[in-house]
Recover the amino acids of this structure.
């Protein structure tokens, strides 16, 4: 016998939406509130970090200062959790050379 090939999408979008909605409502209210508060805090933190960049750096990223809030609003939870590559403690060249000599 030949195998039967089917191009049918068994995960119907309607059923997938109902499954996701039932998962969200089964979560306790406090957990949903806490997650929303943390998401807003991360959103404000990301906006502040991007606003602190100069215009040339924003241009390199492909952003205009007026687009920052719109772009950050489109981020999901994973993207809001991104950390900058450079730390806030930027060392001078002399400090970096001294640290390399110490190692």
């Amino acid at each position: 016998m030949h195998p039967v090939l089917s191009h049918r999408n068994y995960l119907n979008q309607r059923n997938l939406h109902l499954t996701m909605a039932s998962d969200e409502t089964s979560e306790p209210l406090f957990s949903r509130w806490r997650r929303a508060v943390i998401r807003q805090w991360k959103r404000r933190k990301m906006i502040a970090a991007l606003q602190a960049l100069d215009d040339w750096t924003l241009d390199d990223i492909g952003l205009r200062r007026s687009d920052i809030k719109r772009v950050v609003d489109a981020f999901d939870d994973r993207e809001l959790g991104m950390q900058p590559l450079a730390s806030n403690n930027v060392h001078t060249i002399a400090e970096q050379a001294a640290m390399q000599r110490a190692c």
